[in-house]
């Protein structure tokens, strides 16, 4: 299935400086699977949003999902 | 201990005199510096019941042992006083380069006492201290003031200044530095104005000695490569705080229309992507590895920021989804010397009072023209500004609407909706200076993390841990945006000072700092009744987005509060128990309090 992935802030280094990429995943892939595929360590992820809603790492993705991944932020 | 200059400069404005004394190193061992040591000094020296605007109030500028070294993110200054907005203890934090300059001038702290009777500014160059006329600067914005003084004394000096808001004793006036940095909250700028001090110019020709240079430099090198500049922290460089707009919108905690909602329809106009399109440059503070400052230019208006707090309180909270209007509002607040959090929050409250027909301030949500007139009116007490300047609590006392005056102890809520992050609600209620996100920020673990935001479970312990951590971090002083742990903090403190602070001891110091702030407030008459939230949080459900339907039932809030007091070892009424005082070496402080 095809998904559109956006990496926020410094995380775009995992896309070599590009912010948004289309990634093909196997059906029923989870967020965790996605992170593994793009080589993004779990500890560098705070919020994952799918189609604007926060999800957890074991949630599955669907075709055409738009995913935004945020780094942890300190302070306020 | 090294890192310190072992010298305090005391300026007596009543007699236009100054003196120096050794830093109280016994206190420094217990409180380190910055927030903690500043509160300790004020607790010991200020008579209870002192009017914040009287000459008897003190304004303490407190650096720390790490200040003036090249330790990453060590360039901030603590400013401590009694707040005119709340009457509580007030410590603020300001970036830029002033903190290091005070250390280079040879001081750990500058304590300003009394008041002069005509507008003045203070010039400090090492041992030279002058109190000079500010007649021609009075009434000018902070930016013009700073430019004038830089021309007069040269670009090497660093400046603290107030704008017209501080001069007019507005309880939401801030102190500015380096043009674009603020000590924002609680009316700290008004305290400076009450002393008739327009600016403080500092030039330092000295240096800071550390105990172990090799270890300190090795630590810095290692941290820059392995810790500070890693993905955990670089968000501040790449995006700045504007990225938090998207995070808050996604999780339903973006203040909208005076905290009536947690999601804002027009958020894309004011998020980090919108900011990047008009970014005009970057800026960092002294010894900063992160460079979180971003300049935004729209038309002729240039502003540093807008930072997340400004965006949340002055845009979404006022239903202003127009970036140019926000940038103008931000710029006006900066130059006039107003805290954008309290100004935006109060503006939104006035909008709701108007729309509900309670009191017509001529403001409404989304009305840009009227909104842009507000900062100047507040700073100069003109028109509706004379009343808006009082802040939400006082406005509510006059006209009603206390259920939705979004403040605690008289300090307006910052940019996180507590109904979407219950620990944040507890943090607001128990913060030493009123509603504040800089004492504990549970949002990182709740809304932005894995912890269930909508439960009381574990929240008291979380808030306590975060409060203790921030307290010792802001006493050492390390900037909020470097997420170092206590182990790393102990390493750098020990390398610089030559001391042997353990992680446990640092945690204890953090607890002690929180507690002495609490004792200060107790002494001023604050009780557990003041540790509360406005009824909107308990009674009104949020309307849309990820937190639609959410509120904090009052009994759940009270449960968290009771747990908070219990875990802290405080009494049921929120006062600190004897056993805990002894443990924290605060018995003397409590006894002195009772005898007063």
TrEMBL record, chain A:
Pfam families in UniProt: ThiS (PF02597)
Official protein name in the record: Sulfur carrier protein ThiS (Thiamine biosynthesis)
Automatic annotation (TrEMBL), chain B:
Required cofactor names: [4Fe-4S] cluster; tungstopterin
Keyword DNA damage: no
Domain Aldehyde ferredoxin oxidoreductase N-terminal: 4-206
Matches recorded under InterPro entries: Ald_Fedxn_OxRdtase_dom2, Ald_Fedxn_OxRdtase_dom3, Ald_Fedxn_OxRdtase_N, Ald_Fedxn_OxRdtase_N_sf, OxRdtase_Ald_Fedxn_C, Tungsten_al_ferr_oxy-like_C, W-dependent_AOR
Matches recorded under Pfam families: AFOR_C, AFOR_N
Annotated Gene3D superfamilies: Aldehyde Ferredoxin Oxidoreductase Protein, subunit A, domain 2, Aldehyde Ferredoxin Oxidoreductase Protein, subunit A, domain 3, Aldehyde ferredoxin oxidoreductase, N-terminal domain
Molecular function per GO: 4 iron, 4 sulfur cluster binding; electron transfer activity; metal ion binding; oxidoreductase activity, acting on the aldehyde or oxo group of donors, iron-sulfur protein as acceptor
UniProt keyword annotations, A-Z: 4Fe-4S, Iron, Iron-sulfur, Metal-binding, Oxidoreductase
Stated family: Belongs to the AOR/FOR family.
Matches recorded under PANTHER family: ALDEHYDE FERREDOXIN OXIDOREDUCTASE, TUNGSTEN-CONTAINING ALDEHYDE FERREDOXIN OXIDOREDUCTASE
The protein's name in its UniProt record: Aldehyde:ferredoxin oxidoreductase
């Amino acid at each position: 299935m095809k998904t559109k992935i956006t990496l926020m802030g410094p995380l775009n280094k995992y896309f070599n400086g590009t912010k948004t990429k289309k990634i093909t995943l196997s059906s029923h892939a989870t967020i965790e699977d996605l992170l593994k595929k793009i080589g993004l360590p779990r500890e560098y992820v705070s919020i994952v949003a799918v189609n604007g809603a926060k999800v957890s790492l074991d949630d599955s993705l669907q075709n055409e999902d738009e995913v935004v991944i945020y780094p942890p932020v300190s302070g306020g | 201990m090294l890192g310190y200059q072992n010298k305090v400069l005391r300026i007596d404005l009543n007699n236009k005199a100054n003196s120096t004394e050794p830093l109280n190193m016994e206190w420094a061992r217990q409180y380190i510096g910055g927030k903690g040591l500043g509160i300790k000094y004020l607790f010991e020296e200020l008579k209870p019941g002192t009017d914040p605007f009287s000459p008897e109030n003190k304004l303490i500028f407190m650096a720390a042992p790490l200040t003036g070294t090249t330790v990453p993110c060590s360039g901030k200054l603590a400013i401590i006083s009694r707040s005119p907005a709340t009457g509580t203890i007030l410590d603020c934090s300001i970036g830029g380069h002033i903190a290091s300059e005070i250390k280079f001038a040879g001081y750990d702290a500058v304590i300003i006492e009394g008041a002069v009777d005509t507008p003045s500014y203070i010039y400090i160059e090492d041992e030279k201290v002058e109190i000079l006329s500010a007649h021609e600067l009075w009434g000018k914005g902070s930016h013009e003031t700073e430019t004038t003084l830089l021309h007069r004394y040269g670009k090497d000096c660093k400046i603290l200044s107030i704008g017209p808001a501080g001069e007019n004793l507005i309880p939401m006036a801030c102190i500015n530095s380096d043009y674009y940095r603020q000590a924002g909250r609680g009316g700290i700028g008004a305290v400076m104005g009450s002393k008739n001090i327009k600016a403080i110019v500092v030039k330092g020709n000295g240096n800071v000695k550390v105990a172990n240079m090799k270890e300190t430099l090795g630590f810095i090198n290692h941290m820059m490569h392995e810790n500070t500049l890693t993905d955990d922290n670089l968000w501040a460089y790449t995006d700045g705080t504007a990225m938090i707009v998207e995070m808050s919108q996604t999780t339903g905690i973006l203040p909208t229309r005076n905290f009536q909602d947690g999601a804002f329809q027009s958020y894309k106009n004011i998020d980090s992507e919108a900011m990047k399109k008009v970014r005009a440059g970057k800026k960092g503070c002294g010894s900063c590895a992160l460079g979180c400052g971003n300049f935004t230019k729209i038309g002729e208006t240039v502003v540093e920021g807008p930072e997340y707090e400004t965006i949340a309180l002055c845009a979404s909270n006022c239903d202003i989804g127009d970036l140019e209007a926000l940038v103008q509002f931000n710029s006006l607040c900066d130059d006039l010397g107003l805290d954008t959090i309290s100004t935006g929050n109060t503006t939104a409250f006035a909008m709701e009072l108007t729309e509900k027909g309670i009191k017509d301030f001529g403001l409404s949500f989304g009305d840009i023209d009227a909104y842009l007139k507000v900062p100047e009116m507040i700073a100069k007490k003109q028109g509706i500004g004379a009343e808006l300047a009082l802040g939400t609590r006082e406005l509510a006392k006059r006209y009603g609407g206390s259920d939705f005056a979004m403040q605690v102890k008289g300090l307006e809520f910052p940019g996180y909706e507590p109904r979407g992050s219950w620990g944040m609600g507890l943090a607001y209620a128990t913060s030493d200076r009123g509603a504040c996100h800089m004492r504990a920020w549970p949002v990182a673990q709740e809304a932005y993390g894995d912890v269930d935001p909508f439960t009381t479970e574990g929240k008291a312990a979380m808030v306590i841990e975060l409060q203790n951590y921030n307290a010792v971090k802001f006493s050492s002083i390390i900037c909020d945006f470097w997420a170092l742990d206590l182990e790393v903090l102990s390493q750098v403190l020990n390398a610089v000072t030559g001391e042997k602070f353990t992680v446990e001891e640092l945690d204890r110091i953090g607890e002690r700092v929180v507690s002495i702030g609490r004792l200060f407030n107790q002494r001023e008459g604050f009780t557990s009744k003041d540790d509360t939230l406005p009824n909107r949080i308990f009674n009104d459900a949020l309307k849309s987005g990820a937190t639609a339907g959410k509120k904090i039932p009052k009994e759940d809030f009270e449960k968290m509060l009771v747990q908070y007091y219990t875990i802290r070892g405080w009494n049921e009424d929120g006062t600190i128990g004897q056993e805990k005082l002894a443990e924290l070496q605060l018995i003397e402080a409590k006894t002195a309090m009772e005898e007063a």
